[in-house]
């Protein structure tokens, strides 16, 4: 993983800004969410995120370069890969859970029919 020098960031140099440089790209945290929930293949990640295939490919590449995701070959002809969270990526789970709880409290409409499925996930241990 390549690190970031705080002084090289625009604005106020801080670790939050450095973290956002890595996981703040559109779709990045949703890819982490899908891997955390058990997705392994590119197609599973695309389906779970709803992101365009080219965006998923780009984000997987940047997440791998940042040491958050690892790519493991499982087939050679044609070449196919599985994706797994590294220990660094697994440490994002509490952030996903916090975003889930915050989203339920402040963003999702109270009468949303899908809300209850996520409310139970927000209180169960380790869910995101």
From TrEMBL:
<keyword id="KW-0238">DNA-binding</keyword>
<dbReference type="InterPro" id="IPR002577">
    <property type="entry name" value="HTH_HxlR"/>
</dbReference>
<dbReference type="InterPro" id="IPR011991">
    <property type="entry name" value="ArsR-like_HTH"/>
</dbReference>
<protein>
    <submittedName>
        <fullName>HxlR family transcriptional regulator [Modestobacter marinus]</fullName>
    </submittedName>
</protein>
<dbReference type="InterPro" id="IPR036390">
    <property type="entry name" value="WH_DNA-bd_sf"/>
</dbReference>
<dbReference type="GO" id="GO:0003677">
    <property type="term" value="F:DNA binding"/>
</dbReference>
<dbReference type="InterPro" id="IPR036388">
    <property type="entry name" value="WH-like_DNA-bd_sf"/>
</dbReference>
<keyword id="KW-0805">Transcription regulation</keyword>
<dbReference type="Pfam" id="PF01638">
    <property type="entry name" value="HxlR"/>
</dbReference>
<feature type="domain" description="HTH hxlR-type">
    <location>
        <begin position="14"/>
        <end position="111"/>
    </location>
</feature>
<keyword id="KW-0804">Transcription</keyword>
């Amino acid at each position: 993983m390549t690190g970031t020098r705080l002084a090289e960031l625009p604005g106020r140099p801080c670790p939050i800004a450095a973290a956002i440089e890595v996981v703040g790209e559109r779709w990045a945290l949703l890819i982490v969410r899908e891997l955390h929930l058990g997705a392994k293949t590119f197609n599973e990640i695309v389906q779970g995120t709803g992101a365009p295939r080219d965006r998923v490919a780009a984000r997987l590449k940047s997440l791998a370069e940042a040491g958050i995701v690892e790519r493991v070959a499982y087939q050679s002809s044609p070449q196919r890969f599985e994706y797994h969270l590294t220990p660094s990526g697994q440490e994002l789970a509490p952030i996903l859970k916090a975003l889930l709880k915050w989203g339920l409290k402040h963003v999702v409409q109270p009468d949303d029919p899908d809300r209850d499925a996520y409310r139970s996930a927000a209180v169960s241990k380790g869910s995101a």
